[in-house]
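Re: the 375-residue chain
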Amino acid sequence: MSPFQPFVMERMMSRHEQDVEFNLSESGVHPLHLGELLSDTPGGVDRLLSAHLNYAHANGTPELRDNIAKMYPGATRENVLVTVGAIEANYITMRTLVSAGERAVVMLPNYMQIWGIGKNHGYDVATFQLREENGWAPDLVQLRDSVTPATKVIAVCNPNNPTGHVLTEKEMDVVVAEADRVGAWILADEVYAGAERVADKVTPTFYGRYDKVVAVGSLSKAYGLPGLRVGWAVAPSDIIEDLWARHEYTTLSATMISNQLAALALSEEVRPRIIARTRRFIREGFVVFDEWIRKHSGVLSMTPPDAAAIGFVRYDLAVGSTDFVDALRERKSVLIVPGDHFGVDGCVRVSFGLPHDYLVPALDRIHDLMEEFRR
C-alpha cells in the first residue's frame, strides 16, 4: 500500500463532531432546516413531493446549472458541473489538471485538501503564505518565487479558510498575472463568497478574469445547506467535459432531491433571502465573539475576518493547538479546530455564525479551559 496523507482536520471532525455538546468546528453558519428553505416559496412543498426519486442528470439538472451560471460573468450551463460538495470539485479538478511530478502552488493557510491531494499523488507542491503580521494579506513575492514554468495550477481560497481574508482586486490581479506568465490554471475555491461580514457585495470571482480558471462553489458555507452535499465547478466547457468524465468515476451524480432543493435555494427569489440570513448570523455572531476576544486580550488576539463565520484566533498559552483542542473536547465537550491543522500552531479556528444561546455557553467553556491552563 502506498503512503497516504490523511486529511487531518476532516478526520478529526468526522470522529468527534457528532459527539460533543457544542460544535464550533464548522466553518459555515447555523444550518437551515427544510421548513425554512421551503417557507415563503409558492409551490415549493408540492414541487418537492412530486419529484421522482430517479437518478438526476449526472452533471446536474439544467435548472440548477442555469442558476449557478447566473452567478458567474459570461457563464452558461455548459460551463457548470454539479458535484457532491466542493470537495469533489476540488479533487477532480486537481486530478484533471496536474500529473505526478508537476507543480501545484497552494495558498497557506488554507483548507488543506488540495495540499493533501498533491502529497498523495506525487505533485511538486509549493506554497505561498498569507502573512498574519500583514492582516493575512498574501506574500506576493513568495508567490512569484514559487511559480515556475513547471506550475500547472495555482490554488487559492477566497474568501480564505481559516482567516476570513478577502483578496483585494490588486492581489487577485497579481495571482492572474503569475498564472498567465507560465500558462498555469487557477483553481479558485470560492465557497465563502456570499458570507461577507464587512461588505454587502458578494466577493468577486476569479472566473472571467482569465481564460484558465476553475471556480468552485458550494451550498455548505454561504448558504447554510451543508446536508444537501451540493457543490460545483465553473470552467471552460472543454474542461467541464474532462471534469465530468472523472465525476463519473467518483460519485456519478448528486441526488435528485439535492438537485431540486439546490435549484430552489439558488433561484432569484430565494437566494437573496438565504444570503441575508447568512450575513445576519455572521454579523450578529461576530459582535458576541469579538467582545469575548477583547475580554481575553491578554491571552487572545485576532485579525477580524472580512468574511466567513470563523475566527482564526491566536492564543498565549503554553500548550500546542492540538493538545488544547483535545483537552477542550475531553474536558468541556466543545470542538474547535487546532491551528496546526493549517500549519499555524498557536492558533485555533472557532465558528461564531451560530445562535447566541449556543455560542455563548460554548465560549464560556473555552474560557474555563483557558483559566485551567493559566493556573
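Residues 103 and 124 are 4 Å apart (CA to CA).
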